[in-house]
Amino acid sequence: MLLTITTTQTPSAPASDLGFLLHKHPDRAQRFEQSFGTAHVFYPEAGDERCTAALLLEVDPQALLRTRTSVSTPDFALAQYVNDRPYATSSLFTAALGRVMRTALRGRCEQRPELARTPLPLELHLPAVPCRPGPERARALFEPLGWTVRAEPVPLDPGLPGWGDSHYLSLTLTGTLRLSEALNHLYVLLPAMDGGRKHYWVDETEVDKLLRAGGVAEAAGEEPEEPAEEPGWLATHPERSWITRRFLDRRQRYVRTALGRLQEAESVLPAEAEDDPAVEERAPDLAEQRIGAVLSVLRSEQADSVVDLGCGSGALLTHLVREPALRRITGADVSTGALARVRESRAELLVGSVVHRDPRFRGHDAAVLMEVIEHLDPSRLPAMEEVVFGDAAPRVAVVTTPNAEYNTHYEGLAEGAFRHSDHRFEWTRAEFGAWSDRVARTHGYTVRRLPVGPDHRDTGAPTQLAVFTRHDPEEGAGS
């Protein structure tokens, strides 16, 4: 990943003084070893009228492998070599940015302190930066901060225009700002644009990182050199709620803490912006209602063992382990990285896929697929049905999935668009009903469906839930 920072001469300083602010001499190319690769700083041009500094990150996949935390399990001997998702490019880049340009990020320059406080004509360019929400979101993030934004989608293959665009943008930002402000904008917004994906475990220290970079002085744990006249750029940003959730990987406990501190910094309590459908889908109220609905079904069915298929990082498992009636709890996921985040001692953790038969899935009274099926390609659904309902064959199966009809209530979501970039489909209530009825008939279950969340008269609820109950052979064919 590459970033270039360009400035031009001002009445008070030549452009080459950029080297003082970055604490990197224009005449030397420098390299900085990271645990995941090598960062290079060099100057393609360094004159009095115009100066450009470049930060280039080369990721070493083997070094990344050595530093990643994987699940130690005899069930998957190749776990450390297999990963079902690419490493988080923006996360690695901002980590390198924070280490290599730490002093510049904090706005310190002992040799030229007045220069560090002076807005400069800047042009920042990233030829390829992940941005799944698209160019409009990049403009919504940077333009309120005083940047002129040029965001152009990078095609999947320039020679094959029919393939369409990738999830990457060529991003150019032009404006007159302090260099420290510019770097902190990148430090926060690049990971947010990339969906909050990070190559390391997100904990409470991320809140301080976010607030420090967002201009909230107390987050740094230091007394500011001068009294703050403004609350900080993040506290007043119109997209601060969206940015905070994405930066903190949607860890709601940390998100609430960060938003509370940002509101204190602003000295007002405005309503949080909920303009991102994917964020609202993950908001605590709906997520908790979904988990509560699943738990209620398991209790009413008097399940005594359960396998959470596609458990992810353990949102449901955290609640299952508190259920005294459950004597056996199993979590299964294809991602070893997700399983590494689960710290519930009662739950047995398995690396496995819902589209491949696995004898370890058998023997459970209940199975749960919570927000899982929409992440499968439609062509893989028959394999999942056979694995879950045919081979594992629990007495009770609970499936939840988004209701596509409810998407009309999400402001900013284009017609026909999905709530999450990884969704392969989203069904209407009729489509979910037809699918669940067919699965029940095929595999000897009865099914009932329940709404989860606010149930709108015309569109239904945001989440739809199906409870499959296996026929008791003793009841006979006429039951």
From TrEMBL:
Q: What are the protein's UniProt keywords? A: Magnesium, Metal-binding, Methyltransferase, RNA-binding, RNA-mediated gene silencing, S-adenosyl-L-methionine, Transferase
What is the protein's given name? Small RNA 2'-O-methyltransferase
Q: Where is the Methyltransferase domain?
A: 306-385
Q: Which Pfam families match?
A: Hen1_L, Methyltransf_25
What protein family is recorded? Belongs to the methyltransferase superfamily. HEN1 family.
EC no. given is: 2.1.1.386
Which cofactors does the annotated protein need, by name?
Answer: Mg(2+)
Residues forming the Hen1 N-terminal domain are: 1-262
Reaction(s) the record says it catalyses: small RNA 3'-end nucleotide + S-adenosyl-L-methionine = small RNA 3'-end 2'-O-methylnucleotide + S-adenosyl-L-homocysteine + H(+)
